[in-house]
Amino acid sequence: MKLRKVAKLFRDRGGVSAVISNVILVGAVIAVGFGVMTWTYSQSSLYQAQYRESVSSDIDKLRERVSFEYVFYNNNTKSLSVYLMNSGKVDNVNFTTVYISSSSPIVTFTSDQFQLKFLNPPQQPTPDLDMGQEGYILLDLSSVTLPPGKYTVKVETRRSSYFESIFWA
Amino acid sequence: MRAYFGHKTGLSKFRAERKGFSSIVGAIFMVLIVWILASGYFIYTLSQNTVYNDAIREKNLLESNVLSENVQVTNATYVVNGNDKVNVSTSITNIGSLSVQFTTLWVYASNSTPYTGYNCTQLSNVNVQGGATIPLSVNMTIQGLRLGSAYSFASWLITGRGNVVPVEIAPPPEPEHLPISAAGFCSLDWFYLKYTARYNPTTPSDAAIISKACRYVALYINVTNNGDEAMTIKSTSLIMLLIEWQEPLFYIVTSLSYSGTPTITAYNDGNPIIIDSHQSRILTFAAKSTAQPTTWAWGYSLPVGISSGSTPEGSIVMTALVYSMESEPTKIYAQSLSFRALVLTY
Fold first, then answer.
1. Based on the domain organization, do A41 and A120 belong to the same domain?
2. In the prediction, which pLDDT does A65 show?
């Protein structure tokens, strides 16, 4: 009796195409769904990495602090010595630009025009100041005339922070 | 057919009608994708914002500490003890509450020849605790100095927090007594608004900046009786901090103790503080109210009105002194004095 029913079921082909089309459709939806989900997840991870980097960069900028220990203008040699200390809470403070100005800009030095030197040279020479490190920049001002008066020296770091002090010529 | 399906209900009907099943699967995926996106975005953004806020709090604390450094470097002497050599001796007094580390000493020398020279030297282990005084003697090399010649010297110290502290030749200035008075018999010493807290500072320290992290805070003022007769202070005397929207009150107390659980000895009008004519007395304020004279106004938690946020808050200090004079004990004088301000920071 049962065998007869099973045989009848195999003979009856009605509705098979509908089942196959449904299976194909559901399979396609699942495949596309997984694909979209994976892509979305990867995009989300990418966004998270970018956002983390951006926040980390902002935090490093917040923690950056540079103190001017002494700024000395040598009238004979027309050179300016700028002594700095990294008094912030982040390593690798790298100076990209130094601006000299009074009421208006006078001269700008980019990083290829000066070199950061250290009061206590580190064992591994680096082009930047770590936390608590003290260094100095020597600037040649012989190309400009500085009448006696008050001037501003401003340093810009790689993280786009600015720190300034004054000196007298 | 309709009749056949007409008998199907609920789950069996759903199983029978497979049309739209793929739409449901698609919808589930869409919901999953949206959920992953939204939860990932919000939770991650929130965590990063927390990290950023922590960094801002740390930065504010750093700036606050930099501003709180208060050091006097005085009694400097410069002795040229050889060619290119100078000895610098000085005395460092940390009048702030934070300990200060000195990293570098700079010396600048000049004379009329004209000569200018300068140099710096790294200092090691020069740490001065709050309130402490230490001597400092350093031998330095400055190229061009000649034994027997006269020079003018200037020097300054660099602290680990990046402050530049000038070294003074003169002895420390005596704090000038600057009386603040208004209509009334009392005057206050402008320099004397101090505070103590449970762990630090436990001895009265200047209250220009008070950390909100402090617990069990008491305020102290120096009151002078300018009248010609003795003055009896009443228990309704108080100090009010004027902060936006709220004004925490600190009522007068007889004494307080920080040993073990901090305790207040309530002010007792039956055994009052009496300030003799033309005499001064330190008064202590710490109680929440006259009804709760042993409860701390600023105990384990911040008083209402002081936000727990990291943004520094300025506050005007108002003093209400209630007293009677000896000749007329029943006549009450209530004098209000605003003499100082303070900053509450984290």
1. no
2. 93
A68 contact residues in B (CB cutoff 8 A): 164
- Indicate yes or no: CB of B29 within 8 angstroms of CB of A33: yes
A90 lies in the same domain as A163: yes
Angle ∠(B21,B23,B28) on CA atoms, nearest 5: 100
CB contact under 8 A, B40 and A48: yes
DSSP B189-238: EEEEEEEE-SSS--S-EE-SEEETT--S-EEEEEEEE-SSS-EEE-TT-E
Q: Is the pLDDT of residue A47 over 70?
A: yes
A37 neighbourhood in chain B, CB within 8 Å: 29, 32-33, 36
Could you state, in chain order, the average pLDDT of each consecutive group of 10 residues for chain B (346 residues)? Answer: 50 62 80 82 88 90 88 90 91 89 93 87 89 91 88 92 89 62 78 87 87 90 88 93 84 91 92 90 92 91 78 86 89 84 79
Residues in Cβ contact with B258 at an 8 Å cutoff, skipping those fewer than 6 apart: B196, B198, B202, B216
Place of tokens 């005057």: B187
Residues of B in contact with A14 (CB under 8 A): none
Residues A11 and A88 in one domain: no
The CATH number of the domain holding residue A98 is: 2.60.40.10
B132 backbone φψ class: left, alpha, beta (φ>0; ψ -120 to 50): beta
Quick one: A99 and A144 in the same domain?
Answer: yes
Task: Tell me whether residues A67 and B163 touch, CB distance under 8 A.
Answer: yes
Cβ proximity of B325 and B333 under 8 Å: yes
- Contact with chain B for residue A67, Cβ under 8 A: yes
Domain hosting A7: range is: 2-62
ipTM of the complex: 0.78
Contact B29 A65 (CB under 8 A): no
Q: Both A58 and A70 in a single domain?
A: no
Contact with chain A for residue B25, Cβ under 8 A = yes
Strand partners, A27: none
Residues A104, A21 share a domain: no
B114–A contact, CB cutoff 8 A: no
Question: How many domains, chain A?
Answer: 2
Partner A contacted by B33 (CB < 8 A): yes
Q: What is the C-alpha to C-alpha distance for residues B249 and B305, in angstroms, rounded to an integer?
A: 10
Same-domain check for residues A78 and A140: yes
A105 and A137 in a single domain? The answer is: yes
Report the gap between the CA of B48 and the closest CA in chain A (Å): 7
State whether A59 and B55 contact (CB < 8 Å).
Answer: yes
Helix and strand numbers (H, E) in chain A are: 2, 8
- CB–CB of A119 and B104 under 8 A? yes
C-beta atoms surrounding A26 within 10 Å: 17
End residue of a domain, out of A62, A77, A110: A62
Instruction: Search chain A and give the residue with CA nearest B118.
Output: A72
The A residues from 92 to 151 touching B (CB cutoff 8 Å) are 119-120, 132, 134
